[in-house]
Design brief:
Number of helices: 11
Order of helices and strands: HEEHEHHEHEHEHEEEHEHEEHEH
Largest sheet: 9 strands, mixed
Radius of gyration: 20 Å
Bound molecules: threonylcarbamoyladenylate, magnesium ion
Helix content: 25-40%
Number of strands: 13
Amino acid sequence: MTSLADAAHALANGYLVVFPTETVYGLGADGLSASAVAGIFRVKGRPAEHPVILHVATLEAAKSLTAGWSASAQQLAQAFWPGPLTLILKRAPHIPDAVTGGQETVGIRIPAHPVALALLNEFSRVGSGVIAAPSANRFGAVSPTRVRDVERDLGERLGPNDHILDGGHCAVGVESTIVDLTGVRPRILRPGGIDRDRLVKVMALEPQAGVSSPTITRPAPRVSGALQSHYAPNAKVVLLNPEEFDLGLQQLRTDHSVTSIGCLLIAPRKTNQRDPGTTFITMPSDAQRYAHELYARLHDLDQSGCQVILVERPPGSAAWEAIQDRLKRAAAERPSTHNPQ
Ligand code: TXA
Ligand code: MG
């Protein structure tokens, strides 16, 4: 078993450490070392221009990574850190380009998982105390919320000096909400663990994408989670409205090339649940508990060899925004270049 001291020393020596956060597992490296960060990209198979988030333990450390800490940053950090919120701010000059993808901004968060905080504190004693970490999965694949999912996906790609810390099943289960604070008004770049309703209680946000506003002229920064097809399992994912579900399943069963189907349901239904080729999973009807389960269930269904996963579309309210977003991306057509090996 890896101790926190071993893990912190590994980071200080330029190696990788997979660690739990309250959202998903992160694939961490010393965030102030370009060569250590390059290791993340190698293991993930992620294109170099995609920026990674920096994790720190304290507000002081967060401020030191920026070229200007705004009043909005202070308010959001006070309200939600430690927690599943990433702030995009103007970068300090000493941050490697490998972290920011060459952009003038940097993503920062203080995670809430006790193991993540303990690792950051230990790494502050023996190194920079700044951990760059994307989710600990191959590029384009479903993020891991349990160590076994990390091991299956990345185990063979990690080196003998890299480490994995086990912190159980991540409580939140979807990635952090990313808020860009570099424009006139704060803007959500990726919905996540803190929902829109909670954010707007603290401050006004730029209107939601898709809601017409003549003032939105800034191009979106590069966010890998913004790719249409992302967070995708090996199985094909099909999203169905509740009223279409039974018919969709029936039709799929008539396709003899499909022998194994997984169903993620919101509510239990009367469909013949004894079909040997079909696995039915009734998901929690509460958004927080649904998010906690989602990636684990997708990994499990992939493991059981499902070719198609039918997902009953969850409600459209703010509490479900991150889940809706991840399901939509999991179900998106994959470009031919998307090859999670
Ligand atoms: O919950 C999370 O955020 C997890 C845990 C490990 O902290 N991390 C995570 O990292 O989801 P990753 O790399 O899988 O997704 C981070 C997203 C990417 O889409 C990246 O492009 C975006 O954050 N990002 C990072 N820095 C950015 C920046 N300066 N500007 C715009 N987007 C940025
Ligand atoms: Mg990711």
